[in-house]
Each structure stands twice: as C-alpha cells, then as structure tokens.
Design brief:
The protein is of the alpha+beta class. The strands form 2 sheets. Strands 2, 4, 5, 6 and 8 form a 5-stranded antiparallel beta sheet that branches. A 4-stranded antiparallel beta sheet has the order 1-9-3-7, with no helix packed on it. Helix 13 packs across helix 15, helix 21 packs antiparallel against helix 23 and helix 27 packs parallel to helix 29. The longest helix has 26 residues. The termini are far apart.
Length: 739
C-alpha cells in the first residue's frame, strides 16, 4: 500500500475512534441541568484560587530572579579568600547553600587530583575570576603595576585590603595567562600547611577594622615569588572572624554540596553592631576551587523552615493514605508547596534548576522499559511463561508462590528491581487470572517485596546500591557488594518469604482450584506473533546484557533502555506512535517527577541535612570503642525508617556524603562498614510503604491499570512487618563488622 494511502487509512481510523469516544462520553455523562449563573457563582472559588496564586507570584516577583549562567559561580584560591559584603544589618538567620567543584589540588601534589578531567559547569569555571575581583583589578591594570619592586611599593601604599587582594590576584592572573592549564598553587610554603592536609573550604562571617587593615595586610603579604604557593588567611586582608566557622571537606573528582546556617547564636563576642559584615570563603591548603554560592537572610522563618518542610512531606503521605486524591496529584501539590516554601525563604529555584532535580536515570529507564515490555506483551510471551510456571507448581499454591518470589529475587539481583517488576508484573497478572481468576495483588506484593530484598545483593540490583557503588567507587567494587551483602540478603530472604506466606496464608497457601482445568487452559497458550517476538527478543537481550555489563562500562542503564525502545519502535511501528505511547504509564512517570522535585526542594531547604546532622551527632557522641556498633545501628534503622517515608533514591544520594565524611573524620569508622549498613537500611526500608521504593510504585501502577488498586494502608499491613523482620536479620548480620 502506498505511503499516502497508509496515512489516509490511519486518519480515517482515528476520526472514527474519536467520534466513538464523543458518543460514549455523551451517553456516560449526560448534561446536568443547571443555570449558567448558578454554575458561575458556585465555582467562583476556582477564580479566587487562581487569582491568589497569581497574586503570590506578582508579590514575589523580586524573588523570582532567573540567574544568568555563571552568575553565582566564583573562584576561591588559597592566596585569595573570596568575600561578599553583607551590609551592616543585624544577622538573624543567614542560610548558605554552597556547591564546591571537584578539588584539583596543587600542581605538585602526588595525588594526581589536578590531572582529573574537570566535570560540569563548575569545573569549567574553576579558572574564572569573580566579577568582584575583576572590578578591583581594573585600576591596577590601568596603572601598569608589575614586577616585584613595583608590587611591593604599591602594597606599602595601599589603604584598602581589597586593593591589596586585587594586586595579589593580578600577579596570579599573569601567571595563569602564561600557563592557562596549570593549577595556581604548586606546593605549600615553608611553615605552611602540608600538601597532604585534607582540603577544606571554610565559610564564616567576618568584619574588618579599616584603620588596622592596611598594616595587617602589608605585614602578612608574602613576596610575589611565593604568592602562587601561599595560603593566605582572611586575616592577611584585615578581616577578623565574628562567627563560628563552617568547614566543607572537598573531594577529588566529585562536587560537594555544603549548606550552612549562621544565626545570632553563632556570632562571637567579637561581633560589633553597626559594622559592615562579610561572608568570607577561604582554603586551608594550596589550590583553587570554583563554588556556586547562594545565600539569603531568612530571619525567624529559618528556625521553622525544616519543620514546615517535614509537615508538607507528612501531609502528602496522609493524603495518599486517605486515597481521596490520586497519588500523582498529591505529589504535585506537595512539590508546589515545597517550592512555595523556597520562595518564602528567598531561595526560589529557576525552571532549569527544577529540571535538574529530576532523576533522569530512573525516568528514562522506566520510559524505555515500559515500551519494550509493551511490545513483548503483544507477542503472547507472558502467557507462555505463565503456563510454564503453573505446570512447575504441580497444583500447589505455596510452591507457586515460593517459585515466583525467589525467581523475582534472583532476577532482581542482576537487573534493577524496577526493570524486574516491569517484566514480572504482566506474567503474574496473567497467571493469577488463569488460576481460576485469583486476585493478583498478594502474589505481586510478595514479588516486589522479595525484589527489593534480592536487589540488595549486588551493586546493580537496586538504585540505592548503584548510587553507593558509583559515589564510593574508590573504596567499593562490584565483587565487594556480592561478598558482603549477598550473605545477609540470603539470610533475610528466608524469614521474609515465610512471613509473607503467613500474612497472605488465605491467598498464597493451599491447592490451586480446578488445577486440571487450568492446565488444559494454559496448554493452549502460544506465541501469537513470532516476527515481533524475534525482534523484541533480540532487542531485549542486548538491553539486558548492557545492564549486566554495568561494572565494565559504568554507563547509565537508562541509555540502553531508551536506545533499545527507539530501535524496536522504528523497526516495528514506524507510523504508529499513539499505540506505542499507550504502553507508557504517564501517571507513574509524573508521580516520580513530582516526588523528586519535592524531595530535592526539601534538601535545598535543609530538612535532609538536618536529619543527617542528627545521625552524625549521635554517632560522634558514642564512646570510641562502641562507635562502629552505634554507627551501624543508627544508619541501619534510621535509613530503614526514613526510606519508608521518603523515596530511597534521594535519601541515599544525601547520605553517601555523610558516611564518607564520618569515615574520614578520624572517628575510627570503616567506610565499607558504613556503606553496607546504609545499603541494607535503604533497600530493606523501601519495603515499608507504597512510596518507599521505585519498584513499589511501578507494581501499584501495573495493578491499577488491570483494575486491582493497591491501597496505601493495605501495603503497610504487609510491608512494615517484612521490613522489621529483614532489618533485624541484617542487624544481626552486621555484628560481624562491629566486634
């Protein structure tokens, strides 16, 4: 058939389907007899609501500033602390959100950090000079200051430390222009910090005495020859600290997020009212780093913002549990509420920033796998697999349940659990419908719980493990996950399976009714489209192989899912896009997107940092000989609890830097032990609630599409006991690392 004829035929089909939909909607929803005036008055609240939102936007327009590229990116090097004038207004609650670029170290540092490829926007900006310093340099360039003698003479006559700062940086810039790819600092000067000192970025509030500034700065200034190797404290520029210092440990090849709050109680006795305040950033070791700096004076709201964020989160959970509103809309309302709180705190993110909050890996993986599974479903493969499983059960429901649970757990150990449930969900639903029309919810619930447990055994089995393994790849390898986590997973899976069977004893135990009739029915199942089966099978095999080879290529699994789905659609459905999109669960993807935005906004506000700070404080307070035991207990149980109410993906992203910091703080804690405790807690804890893990949402959405909605409270009735049992087993297993 010619191409235009195919399009014309397809258009006629779409028009006919649309007319049928209109007729159906007219019959299903007949017109309600209500006067226009009454309808307008009754729904006036909608106009008031929208008008209120518009009013809030207009009143907050001064806060809805969209930053220009690199507007908030500044350079800090060891010879030039970066300072921001804050004015003389009293400090009540100054909230600082700071992202430091990967540390490159000094040029002579044997660690090789300077040879690492610079990643992302911040790494590219590491050699940039802030607008503030460039403005200070302009008059010096115009005056033609240069050379050691001229610089010394200029330094003696400078009255303002900022001008001296500009003179120093002018010399650094001259060297940087002649060696643009060299890191400024080469080695620590005599008497300065050792090259092996851990690099730290310090943030604090400072003031300066203008009458003493020039003398202090001139006395502290090194020679021009030593300037590139110098570590100059803010005191060299006439500043003195008036608040507690906040330090951030910088990492090689990894950006570091460091939030801090400086309150009235943080100010020291040296603070003088009416003096100009400065936010000063400095380094303790030779080198340089780029920072993306945001700060805002929040006032009294700062003391309540974390609790307000927690209230929004709990409100969303309650709304989902009531099932009066679809969970997608609950997540959207919570996300907008979190962004409104950011607006109130003068921390409004741009639209580009909000899109960065999305976990494109999870969303892309789900999108691609939904299309691939939808194509496989059209071949009749799932019905054939269903028949094989029913025959293997020999008519015993408990054996069928155990087979499905452990097959799912084993598959999840090598595929991520989201992919596993997308593959296993249709098989289970088809199988349970065949088995005398049984409710598929208990079986799928058992499978997803075992999927989250089995996925903990390897680095690629569960998203939290992927996050931990990628972020801590200097300490952990693929084999390490199997050696240290798999024994605990095997130990936890046995009581978990027994507990699930007992909780669902009415549905998952006993004989399969009319087993002979069921066998005769499934004996007729065949693959209905071998051509599509071959194409889909080849693509799926390559995609799954790409997943399994993750330890070799370290590429995001979403790439393989999306590329595979695109190839399969092009070779099988070049013109039929609408039918393919029907296999995508858009409400699930939008729920995930809204949840990611909500949790990341909570992180920007500082709620998750507050929780991490609590955990850190408890661990630090423990006696040295019991610190490992306390750290394991806290990380394991707290992670399980928090992962039950938050999605475990953003929680794990937040906690990985915390355990890295604890392990490097001289507390005698082993980074591997902390990583295993976090993995067990985050993965097992995700079983507790419907929103605890991504695989849970996938399973609930599959069931809902088939007419079997899964309630939030119904999930908790089984999920919480299984979570407690498995975490308790993991706790006993982790004792091997504590003594």
């Amino acid at each position: 058939m010619p191409h235009h004829a195919v399009l014309s035929h397809r258009a006629e089909e779409l028009i006919e389907l649309r007319l049928d939909d209109l007729e159906h909607n007219h019959l299903a929803h007949p017109a309600k007899h209500i006067s226009p005036a009454k309808a307008l008055l009754r729904n006036l609240w909608v106009l008031l609501l929208c008008g209120g939102v518009l009013t809030v936007v207009l009143l907050g327009k001064s806060r809805l500033h969209v930053a220009e590229p690199l507007e908030h990116v500044h350079a800090v090097n060891s010879a030039e602390p970066y300072f921001v004038p804050l004015g003389s207004a009293p400090i009540k609650y100054l909230y600082i959100a700071n992202i430091a670029a990967p540390w490159h170290g000094a040029a002579g540092d044997s660690s090789g950090g300077h040879r690492r490829r610079r990643r992302g926007l911040l790494g590219a900006a590491a050699d940039a000079v802030s607008q503030q310093t460039a403005a200070l340099l302009e008059p010096l360039f115009a005056a033609g200051v240069g050379g050691t003698a001229a610089a010394a003479a200029a330094g003696r006559t400078l009255k303002d430390p900022a001008a001296l700062q500009a003179l120093h940086l002018k010399q650094l810039m001259k060297q940087q222009l002649s060696h643009p790819h060299r890191v400024l600092a080469a080695a620590a000067p005599p008497g300065g910090p050792e090259p092996s000192a851990p690099p730290q970025l310090t943030m604090q509030i400072m003031q300066r005495n203008t009458t003493k500034a020039a003398a202090v700065a001139a006395a502290a200034a090194p020679s021009i020859e030593a300037l590139p190797n110098a570590v100059l404290s803010p005191a060299a520029y006439g500043f003195h600290s008036v608040s507690q210092a906040v330090t951030c440990n910088l990492k090689e090849g990894q950006a570091v997020k460091c939030n801090a709050a400086i309150t009235t109680s943080s100010l020291s006795d040296a603070f003088e009212e009416g003096q100009e305040n400065f936010l000063v950033l400095s380094l303790n070791t030779p080198g340089q780093v780029a920072v993306e700096l945001h700060f805002s004076e929040i006032g009294k709201l700062g003391y309540a913002k974390n609790w307000l964020a927690l209230a929004i989160l709990l409100g969303m959970l309650v709304a989902i549990a009531t099932e009066k509103v679809h969970r997608m809309w609950c997540a959207f309302v919570a996300a907008f509420a979190m962004m409104s709180l950011l607006l109130w705190c003068n921390m409004t993110p741009s639209l580009a920033k909000v899109t960065e909050f999305l976990d494109e890996s999870t969303l892309g993986l789900l999108f691609g796998m939904m299309i691939l599974v939808g194509k496989l479903k059209d071949t009749g493969l799932f019905e054939v697999l269903c028949a094989a499983t029913l025959k293997a059960s020999r008519g015993k429901m408990w054996l069928l349940s155990v087979l499905m649970m452990y097959i799912t757990a084993c598959v999840s150990a090598f595929l991520d659990n989201v992919t596993t449930m997308l593959l296993m969900g249709p098989i289970t639903i088809s199988m349970m419908k065949t088995a005398n029309g049984r409710d598929p919810r208990p079986m799928l619930m058992a499978q997803v719980l075992m999927s989250n447990i089995g996925g903990t055994a390897t680095m690629v089995g569960d998203p939290p493990n992927i996050i931990i393994g990628t972020a801590l790849q200097r300490y952990l390898g693929f084999v390490d996950f199997i050696l240290h986590l798999a024994p605990g997973v095997i130990a936890a899976s046995v009581p978990a399976a027994a507990l699930i069977l007992w909780l669902y004893r009415k549905e998952l135990l006993g004989p399969i009714p009319d087993y002979s009739k069921v066998l005769s029915t499934v004996g007729q199942y065949r693959v209905t489209d071998w051509d599509l089966m071959a194409k889909s099978g080849y693509v799926m095999v390559v995609v799954l192989l790409g997943f399994l080879l993750h330890p070799l290529h370290h590429l995001d699994p979403a790439w393989f899912a999306i590329i595979g789905a695109s190839i399969l659609c092009i070779i099988t459905s070049r013109l039929d896009v609408e039918e393919i999109m029907h296999s995508v669960e858009w409400d699930m993807l939008l729920f995930f997107a809204a949840q990611f935005v909500m949790v990341e906004c909570a992180a920007e506000i500082g709620m998750i940092d507050m929780i991490g700070g609590w955990l850190e404080a408890i661990i630090r307070a423990a006696p040295a000989q019991q610190r490992t035991l306390v750290a394991v207990q806290i990380l394991l149980w707290a992670s399980a609890f928090i992962s039950g109410i938050l999605d475990n993906i953003p929680y794990t992203i937040t906690m990985v830097p915390v355990i890295d910091f604890l392990a490097s703080s001289g507390l005698g804690l082993n980074i591997q032990t902390l990583a295993w405790a976090l993995a067990f807690g985050a993965c097992f804890g995700g079983n507790a609630t419907l929103i605890g893990a991504s695989a849970n949402i996938v399973t609930a959405t599959i069931l809902e599409r088939q007419g079997f909605p899964m309630s939030f409270l119904g999930w908790m009735r089984v999920g919480i006991p299984v979570t407690i049992a498995t975490v308790a087993i993991a706790n006993l297993y982790m004792f091997r690392y504590c003594f």
